[in-house]
Design a protein that fits this description.
Helices cover 69% and strands 0% of the residues. With 147 residues, it is mostly helical. It has 2 domains: 50 residues; 54 residues, no CATH class. The longest helix is centred in the middle third of the chain and has 36 residues. 11% of the residues are buried. The N terminus is likely disordered.
Amino acid sequence: MAKNVQSADNADETLDALKMRAFTLRLAGMTWTEVGKECGVSMTQARRWSQSPEWSAESERFVEDVRKQIQSWTCSGTEKAIATLMRLMDSPDEDVRLKAAGQMLEWCTKARVNIQPREAAPTTDAEAAKLLAGATSLPTLPDGVEG
């Protein structure tokens, strides 16, 4: 009798593993028919899995993880772009300084940042990032300048 209980427990663990495999295969773009075939179940069974609370929870976790990763990439890219422009505005080449400053102002204008007169310009990347908070696009570097 204990063997049957153990088999049932293993079946549950396998089912969870199969659901996760099916989830991953769907993310990879497979059809329900292909997912069923890969997991050794019918297409109908594979589709039923997608209607389970566990599947929904996994989908929500996946979307949240992707959102966080994109936000992280965007933030780090924005910070790098700001730092690059700030560095270029200190260039010994006046043309580079003017292009960088113009790019920064253009970006701020497009982002509809309310630029108030300040006692002093931002001196750190963090201060510059605060100034540009809410920007909707990344700036481009001036022509002929590499970041």
